[in-house]
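Review form for a predicted model. The reviewer records the input and the model, then writes brief findings.
Reviewer: anonymous (R2)
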Amino acid sequence: SDMEEIRRIDTYTKGKVRSHELDICYPVAWGKNGIEACLASLAAEAEDAVRSGANILIVSDRCFDEEHVAIPALLATSSVHQHLVKKGLRTSTGLVVETGSARETHHFALLGGYGAEAVHPWLA
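Model under review:
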């Protein structure tokens, strides 16, 4: 699939282009503070990944299951985008959003407006 190619893009580009996946799901057990904690760790992880040479960040909610809840893709994408802008790193990387929540045209438009270069929907 397209997403598998993006995940393994370093093998196709001999390491010139590298991707890093950001999992936007967190344990249900974290409760209502989970979103804040997860957003903070996502921002730090995104920054580290870009500083380590990742040219593509994949924002993904695919790990969603009975024990994990996903941060809304729009919120996660916007948060990562804004953090990288603040750190002066945003132009160094592309954001690809892999989400089960994008169902209608306006969802894709909104994700684009919040910084996504590409959106790959998956169906649960």
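Findings: The mean pLDDT is 89.
Further findings: DSSP finds five helices and six strands in the chain.
Recommendation: see findings above.
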